[in-house]
Specification:
The complex is a heterotrimer.
Chain A lengths: L3 E10 L2 E11 L4 E5 L6 H8 L7 E6 L6 H4 L2 E4 L11 H11 L5 H10 L13 H13 L5 E5 L7 H13 L6 E6 L11 E6 L2 E7 H8 L3 H8 L3
Parallel strand pairs in A: 3-7, 3-8, 5-6, 6-7
Antiparallel strand pairs in A: 1-2, 1-4, 8-9
Chain B lengths: L1 H38 L4 H38 L3 H4 L6 H30 L4 H16 L1 H4 L4 H29 L6 H26 L5 H4 L5 H33 L5
Helix pairs in contact in B: 1-2, 1-4, 2-4, 2-7, 4-7, 7-8, 7-10
Chain C lengths: L10 H15 L11 H8 L3 H14 L2 E4 L3 E4 L3 H26 L3 H16 L1
Antiparallel strand pairs in C: 1-2
Helix pairs in contact in C: 1-3, 1-4, 2-3
Classes of the chains: A alpha/beta, B mainly alpha, C mainly alpha.
Chain lengths: 231, 266, 123
């Protein structure tokens, strides 16, 4: 059964149609890119998957059920912005995640904090912006979740940090879990993706595997994106 | 899960309230000493110091109460309505548990603050002659007045405590309801929260008055004097509790609906 | 250091080429054990599924054998490895000849240029 499925999903905010008839099906073990320009509906889709928003029409299913507290237990979400509380220390963050998520691997996360040079006593507010982002990523990827939703993880991040993020995604690969990465920066991410969905103004305009696009169209996904979304 | 929410909520808030209570107790000791010093008509410098310490203690009391209220508001705003909301609302917990944990913790701090203020007042008044005399006079007064004797009963104390707790919870919920409505809009979230704070109260006052007027005839026998003063006091207290509970329940329902269906995290 | 991958060709076929190069150059010696899919994917900076596809193809061709529990091993068939080496060379030569033809050189000129350059590099 697909771990993440959208059937004719609609979402409107007043008059604005953020998502229109979206159909998506993602099987476990796939790393999928949700690619589109700013404002295309990527974040709205992520929020719907987390139950932060409710659909206006159609269905969104996580492992066959609508989002609720049970699906949240198997979904690990990396929001676009850094959301970890400033007053907590690294150690308290680990406690927090271990308390609420039974699938959280505290030892692995602690080891990664160590490798990044984050002492457990250090408070989040003392960390640099880049360190906070990496800390949040480590917390999210240290869960043995069924579905990872990463919203613009490499957006405003330096190239070395991008490598770190993609390395973490690859090394955490689990054939029973799916990863959805939403981004508009494609060239770095392309080699890590199995398949991509292009989304524009709330609609899915393309769905194919990365290698199929390269074989059939003779260009990278990045190049195809530039063509499809030419201004 | 609720237990874990409580644990982390207390962790987040104790780091602020704890030190405040310590400062309050410390200043109350200073205040006590100041009163004794001032009583013995000392040098000018000591008089000034004594006056300052007393003023500081007064400020500390007001400050602690204000901080307790501000903390209640701020915790809801930053932890649920701000960026942290992305973490909190994606935890495997229900919206009810999130709201209830906030209510429990803020109510505990309100009661604790009241206790801390009481303790600090007692310390300030410790073995101070004229305070002890005043207490004696009040006890005598209570013994003489028949109606006030009911106040010595344990039942009344329980009722007052219940009323205090429900009032604290309802008070917090009023803010929560206002904020959850205000933050459901995309713009002017804080402004709208303040606006709805007053709108909600206005609506509740109007509704409350209408209910009282309409049911005036229904409840008349309840307020007739023939059942005696002591039962009346009990009855009045329980009615107050009921009133506060109903208001609180309405605020809770509003908050829940807004957070479940109209959450608008930026 | 992530593997250098071109943007216009399918990733899995480039991975196959890369691994073949490793086999013929001796980086993955005959009969030797290959790193796991996940390790190699991490080293290359690619999706483990894509690396798996490359491995499967190499197994199909016989260059790599999967032992059920212990992992994947390079074949000991030296002839096959030699043939693979030649195939890789032929592909490179084909590209080279296409480029030289576009420059306007004929077969003899190409041969002469090649030996000239090769002797220079040799010293």
């Amino acid at each position: 059964m697909p771990i993440f499925e959208c059937r004719d999903l609609d979402k409107s905010f007043g008059q604005v149609r953020a998502l229109d008839g979206v159909n998506i099906s993602i099987e476990p073990g796939r790393i999928v890119g949700l690619l589109g320009p700013n404002g295309s509906g990527k974040t709205t889709l992520m929020k719907l998957a987390n139950g932060l928003l409710t659909p206006s029409g159609g269905e969104l299913l996580i492992n066959g059920s609508a989002p609720d507290r049970n699906t949240r237990a198997i979904v690990s979400y990396l929001p676009e912005r850094t959301c970890i509380p400033l007053w907590m220390s690294a150690g308290q963050l680990l406690d927090f995640y271990r308390d609420f998520y039974t699938d959280f691997r505290r030892d692995a996360a602690e080891k990664m904090f160590g490798r990044l040079g984050i002492p457990l006593k250090q408070k989040v507010k003392q960390m640099s912006k880049g360190t906070r982002e990496k800390a949040q990523l480590i917390l999210v990827m240290s869960r043995r979740a069924g579905l990872y939703l990463l919203d613009e993880p490499i957006g405003g991040v330096d190239p070395a940090a991008r490598d770190f993020i993609l390395d973490t995604v690859i090394s955490n690969y689990n054939p029973e879990a799916a990863v959805v990465i939403s981004t508009h920066i494609i060239s770095d991410v392309e080699k890590v993706l199995d398949e991509v969905y292009f989304i524009n103004r709330g609609e899915i305009v393309l769905h194919d595997s990365v290698d199929a696009i390269r074989e059939e169209k003779g260009m990278s996904v990045d190049a195809l994106f530039r063509e499809v979304f030419k201004c | 899960m609720l237990g874990k929410l409580l644990k982390h909520e207390f962790r987040a808030t104790a780091r602020i309230m704890g030190p405040l209570y310590l400062v309050l107790i410390a200043l109350s000791i200073c205040a006590n000493l100041s009163i004794r010093i001032l009583d013995s008509s000392p040098a000018a410098a000591l008089t000034v110091l004594g006056a300052i310490l007393l003023a500081a203690f007064g400020l500390a009391v007001t400050g602690t109460v204000i901080v307790a209220v501000a903390l209640m508001v701020n915790r809801f705003r930053t932890n649920l309505m701000g960026d942290e909301g992305y973490i909190m609302f994606t935890l495997p917990v229900s919206v009810d548990q999130l709201v209830v944990s906030k209510i429990i913790v803020s109510t505990v701090w309100f009661i604790a603050t009241a206790a801390a203020v009481l303790v600090s007042a007692l310390i300030t008044a410790f073995r101070i002659e004229y305070v002890e005399k005043a207490v004696e006079m009040i006890s005598e007064l209570i013994r003489i007045t028949p109606g006030l004797q009911a106040l010595k009963g344990a039942a009344v104390i329980v009722e007052v405590l219940v009323l205090a707790v429900t009032a604290c919870a309802s008070f917090s919920l009023l803010f929560y309801a206002a904020m959850s409505i205000g933050h459901s809009f995309s713009n002017h979230k804080k402004l709208l929260s303040v606006v709805f704070f007053f709108v909600i109260q206005f609506v509740m006052q109007t509704a409350g008055s209408l209910v009282i007027l309409a049911s005036g005839t229904l409840f008349k026998p309840w307020f007739s004097g023939d059942i005696g003063i002591i039962p009346s006091v009990h009855r009045a207290l329980w009615l107050a509790v009921l009133y506060v509970l109903i208001r609180g329940a309405i605020y809770y329902i509003v908050t829940r609906i807004m957070l479940k269906k109209h959450l608008n995290l930026e | 250091m992530k593997w250098q991958l071109r943007s216009d060709a399918p990733i899995y076929s480039q991975l196959i080429e890369h691994i073949k190069l490793g086999i013929v150059s001796g980086e993955f010696p005959p009969g030797g054990k290959l790193p796991s899919v996940r390790d190699l994917a991490g080293e290359a900076g690619v999706n483990p599924n894509t690396m798996q596809r490359a491995f499967t193809e190499l197994e199909r061709e016989g260059l790599v054998n999967a032992q059920r529990t212990s992992g994947r091993y390079v074949t000991e068939d030296h002839e096959m490895i030699e043939e693979t080496k030649k195939d890789l060379a032929r592909a490179k030569i084909k590209d080279f000849l296409e480029a030289m033809t576009r420059l306007g050189y004929g077969a003899d000129e190409i041969a002469a240029l090649v030996s000239e350059q090769a002797s220079k590099e040799g010293s």
